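Quarterly update, task 2.4: zinc ion-bound model.
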Amino acid sequence: MSGPAKVACITLDAADPCFLREWADQGLLPHFAKLFEESLRAETHNPEIIYSGTLWASFNTGVWPGRHDHYFPLQTDSGSYRLRRFMPEDISVDSIWNAIARQGQRVALVDLPKSRLECLPNTLQVSFWGEHEVLSPLTCWPPALEKDVLSVVGRDRVGACDLVRQRPDELRKLRDGLVDRAERRGDLALAILEKGPWDLFVFNFSEAHCAGHQLWAARDTAHPGHRPELRAALGEDPLLDVYQAIDRSLGRVIEALGDDVFLLVLATHGIGPRYDAAGALDEVLRRLDGVNVPKTSGPVESVRKAWHRLPGIVRSPFRRVIDYLYDSSRQGERARRRFYAVPTTDNCGGVRLNLKGREPEGQVAPGTPSQELCDWLTQELLALRNVKTGAPVVRRVLHGDDLFAGAYRDEFPDLMIEWNNEAPIPALRSQTVGELQVESCGPRTGDHRPQGLVLARAPHLQPGTMHGATELVDLAPTLAAHLGVQLSGIQGQPVPEFLPRPRSFMSLANA
Ligand SMILES: [Zn+2]
Ligand SMILES: [Zn+2]
């Protein structure tokens, strides 16, 4: 091994593939542009509808949702009406990184979401230095690494991006913090590479994720949340500022890795305006079920809205307690209903049936009755119209049984809703539901899109564009294959075109 790593994977969390290509073409991301030209590239196929909550667990484990059990940081606790905090170590399926490390390979993971490496003499892990989801304080293996990390890059000054409000000064501070973090991340990568050589080095950039959620309205004049004072404070495109900072560090890391490495760079999923009806889903379901709004709901929602208007510094220490209290206020009602909304990522909706034999006070019999109820709910959800545009509010409804086949099926929602995110949804209506205002909670103005992109670069690979998409679950097995590690019991397979002897150049098209 001549470089600091034999095999490397750099993940760009929620860095939109369309922006990456557009800005690379315009010369604004020179390092990404060079890598793009030197790589064999493919679109990636992510999990359907609930991709943003499940893709990291699928990437890490090589199995699709249902074969693993994670979709949201606060997810249903099957067999109860509670939600539980879901930490990386709670995933019931082991990661491919551990399988590789157990074979004696030297493995380093840095800020890779939803991953927890076994503590072995040949492993190194930095978690929560600056991830998008701040689930825990900085955690390092070996523990002495923490001091090194802090001496090289200090602590993250951004923290949980969702504590930011859509105010010019707060968004400017966030943008500057993300630019700074992306740049320091390059120092972090180089410091970890110096501790090599590594057989496998996996390194994540989280900054595009935070920027996409919070800075979208500042750049998009068509977004209802856009205001001239945001542009005055943040310039024309604060998202580009963050992507350019990532690009500068990406260039440094790629240079340090050298030319002999097998390198995968994965832009996991995209970003666009946040247009959904997530804030109205539970009320839609109440109306469909003929259930009255609980008397406590009005005051609870008023307190919740007031809470979100407080400065982040006030909310930060209490946010977990508030989540717990908010959820507790809703558990009793869930037990009395036939179906209810469960929290998921905003870009999709989740419905859970109160199923006999599964939930403690189940109301719906499994088999044909639950199937008929799901079919009826699907029809009713597809009948919802955007009051402003007349367009459907819901693009697709898919059944949990089809989406989440596997040992962990019961952990997941029973219906998944894909919102029609083409336009803002200020209010919705249907014959059964009537008319309902949609109020979105939280500060996010941008939300995900499902497209992903992977670039593979190695001396043996001919640059070009592959026809068709690679499966997300195939990427970690491809890294393992390059290390000679055989895996079993997973759904992912190494991508043949990325392996040392491509089986066919017929499938390549020069682009
Ligand atoms: Zn997100
Ligand atoms: Zn964030």
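Highlight for this quarter: The chain has 17 helices and 21 strands.
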